[in-house]
Input
Amino acid sequence: MSPRHERLLDAPPAAVVARSGQAALAVRNASIAYGPKSPVIVDNVSFDVNQGEAFILIGRSGCGKSTLLRSLAGFQELRSGDILLDGKKTKSPGPDRMMVFQNFDQLLPWRTALQNVEFAVKKSGSKDTTSPRQRALDALEMVHLSAASDKFPSQLSGGMQQRVAIARALAVRPRIVLMDEPFGALDAMTRASLQAELLRLQKEMNMTLVFVTHSIEEAVYLGGRIGLMTPQGTFEGIYTNAFQGQLDSPECAEFAGELRTKLEMSAA
Ligand SMILES: Nc1ncnc2c1ncn2[C@@H]1O[C@H](COP(=O)(O)OP(=O)(O)OP(=O)(O)O)[C@@H](O)[C@H]1O
Output
């Protein structure tokens, strides 16, 4: 393991030490609505995400994937139910969950790539012995952006900006990384290379990840398990994916085809 990995991994926050058998994230009977009299968007869902697991939320547009993710981040209150991090109920945002969004304007435009990442580490209140600057440098190196660390967001391509956002999430060393279609606005080639990079990082860092996407191919490439949501805001099913990291085997294509059929039927 390289020194930068060790620095980013060797002193996990106390909360990382989950009791054996306990999910990193547990969602229990969660329902979400945008207001007391508004219709329910996410309806009584329960699932666990284990340490080091990549859990994908997929479903038709408007089925509530982003709403659910925002609740996991603490940005959106539950109408009922609970969200537990390492067994503890959580309601508000915190540095234990870092979010990466789709839009390229999530970085502070007046700060360089390095300053953006360093600022997030400082803001997280980390008391780690490795300095925020070193952690930011390590994280940028992990996403192959060391050479661009002094550039401002406006000087970076969309793919590079998303890499900075990922570096920022990693540098804070959250308990869980939450991603809302982070590659949705990228061209196909950049998207494919960032998917491969994310999968590498997810494995290397034993990252616990919840990732929202529209794309079945992306879900099958990245996901350890895939939660398929219905337009009613429930789960049609949660599927274990034996093809993580694969792209084009016939079995993988068959599995993706089955998911596509389920997705289409769930919307019928
Ligand atoms: N702030 C809000 N206030 C009221 N309703 C909202 C709000 N945000 C989202 N909604 C509604 O909640 C429902 C679910 O939206 P959400 O963005 O969670 O779906 P999604 O599955 O992520 O969709 P997409 O894949 O298109 O991003 C939609 O009907 C949407 O109009």
Remarks:
- The mean pLDDT is 89.
- Residues 20-96+175-188+205-267 form a domain with the Rossmann fold fold (CATH 3.40.50.300).
- Residues 195 and 222 are 7 Å apart (CA to CA).
- Residues 34, 41, 59, 61-67, 214 surround adenosine-5'-triphosphate (CB under 6 Å).
